[in-house]
Design a protein that fits this description.
Blueprint (H helix, E strand, L loop, with lengths): L1 H23 L7 H13 L3 H14 L4 H16 L3 H21 L4 H13 L8 H17 L1
Length: 148
């Protein structure tokens, strides 16, 4: 199992290195999918700070992509977990906004819905937490699961 983990990490490092090399070499304007994949690789390596730049660029290039907004929200959320209280407030608001945007763009994005539901349950009201909204999402997911 350790060998598979090592191979996965090596694959992620190679992907990030290739992407960074392409950008540094003055490649044509980056592709949103390429930036998303770079950000996802950095996120998977717990490098949330460095994942922000490519995912923000991807969102800017393709603002209609729910998955891009979801990954942006996840980066903000992870950074908020390890920030001082003042910075965490700002990051929590960004997390909330990005999660709501992801769900607005694709109501069937189950992963984003689950994360938004979790946010609503855990965040205080002044940061957008709302138990009723969380319950509404939970019912929506249960109904969707029952019909599929």
């Amino acid at each position: 199992m350790k060998h598979l983990t090592d191979l996965f990490c090596l694959r992620q490092l190679v992907l990030v290195a290739a992407l960074l090399t392409g950008c540094a070499a003055g490649a044509a304007e980056p592709d949103a999918d390429l930036l998303f994949n770079q950000a996802q690789a950095l996120y998977d390596m717990n490098d949330y700070e460095h994942a922000l730049t490519p995912i923000k660029q991807a969102v800017s290039l393709a603002p209609e992509e729910s998955d891009y907004h979801h990954l942006l929200a996840k980066c903000y959320g992870k950074l908020a977990e390890n920030s001082n209280w003042f910075k965490a407030l700002s990051l929590a608001r960004k997390t909330h906004s990005s999660l709501e945007k992801a769900v607005k763009l694709d109501r069937d994005n189950v992963s984003a819905l689950k994360d938004l539901m979790k946010y609503y349950r855990q965040a205080p009201g002044f940061l957008g937490g709302d138990k009723d909204k969380a319950d509404e999402i939970e019912r929506f997911l249960a109904d969707a699961d029952a019909t599929s």
